[in-house]
Amino acid sequence: MHVVSKRRERDTWAPRHRRIPCAARIARLTALWSIALLVSFSAILSQPVLAGPEVAPATYGYFDFPTCVRYALVHSETLIKNRLEIQIQSADLKDAHSEIFPTFEVQTRYYFARTRNYNDRTESNQKFSASLVMTNFNPMLALIKIKAKAILVDAATTTHQQKISEHIGNMAKLFYRISVLEKTIRAERQIAALLKNKVNYASTRKDQGDYDPIAARALVNNQRAQEIKIRGLENAMDQATRQLKIMMGYPPDFHLPLDTRDAANQILFGFNGSHITFADIQAGNLGLKVIAKREQFQSNMVSGAYLRLLPKPTVIFQDINNQVDASSGTTFGVGLDYTLWDGFRRVRDIKRQKLRASQIKIERSEVAQQLYDKFRALRSDIKLAAEKEGYAREQMNLAEASEERALSQYKSGMLTYDLYMDQGVAKVQARLGALNAVMERVNALIELATISGGLNRYNAGIQY
């Protein structure tokens, strides 16, 4: 019995001795799990967004810039109006061609009462008469008119091409501006997401009593200002799209599915303007060509003014029957008409036409000077824009490097989360600066191509 009791004592003591360490081990594990959960929860609350927010990929339509140009050439009301002007001038040219031939008229009369010649036959005093008359014409003046109207048709055609060139240039600027606005809106939304992260961080720290309430309110107001800025950019893009629809002749209430990917290359097709000289601009500028056509027309008008000093040939043909004076028969004759005295109006008209020719010559010189000044300004703008673009690109690289350094400092605890977000905002703003610098250069190149004869000279996808 004594032995048994000792064994029972050992048996009951041994398990109790083994259970005590197990309970302590479980308690320690529970404490460790609690600490781990607290650390995880605090880490989740203050976890930064290490990269920019995810932006949904943009969807693109099928209206790239060459397609927009082709659509505008058919549907734009401005260009249609210019084409109608060419048709009007062509009709005037056909009228001038018709003046080279004589005009015949049939003149009919019915007399309710008339004088009678009782010495003639009775049938010569009938109440109805019909006559064939050829109106007087001047073939030499008709030739001058034909040449003048032909010059006007050429001038209208060149003017139409100039309007198309300017129209396409304005469309190109709008198209590229829409592309820049799309990228700007996406970048500003990234900034808005970063500011939202700062607001959440400040709100959490403020609840913990570790952040200035006024500074937290300022962050909320900055986020609100950013949202207002985005809405303003969206309104600007909608307005630019509406203007593009008007220039294209596109229905205003319909959606315009634009494809703005690589918009600069769609417009310029590699054109950089480095090989353009002022001689190229003088040879290709459509405005100078229109003025040259006007000079031709005015020279023709001077010739016409001199022609009026010469005798005018006259051809008479009449086949009359039963006139008021009871005359009938056929008349045919040729001759010359000359004005002896008109108060020197014809002489003054010669001087007037020469003065107008001098005005057009001065206008051509002024336009050429303006083009030269514009050419020099555009070359300077392109060079300056290239320097700005290089500076903005370097600023973007510096901002990216600063953001990477801020990330490492934040991970090491040397930088707070809000300051790290500030570096992210600065990086996106640097990208926007580079985007605007490129826009300045592209707009200057579009203007240079326009005054050099049009974008169609340098972009095979734009033909008219």
TrEMBL record:
Q: Does this entry carry the keyword Iron?
A: no
Q: Which PANTHER family match?
A: OUTER MEMBRANE PROTEIN TOLC
The terms describing its cellular component in GO are: cell outer membrane; efflux pump complex
What keywords were assigned to this record? Cell outer membrane, Membrane, Transmembrane, Transmembrane beta strand
Q: Which domain of life is it from?
A: Bacteria
In its UniProt entry, what is this protein called?
A: TolC family protein
Q: Which InterPro entries match?
A: TolC-like
Tell me where it mainly resides.
membrane
Q: Quote the Gene3D superfamilies the UniProt record gives.
A: Outer membrane efflux proteins (OEP)
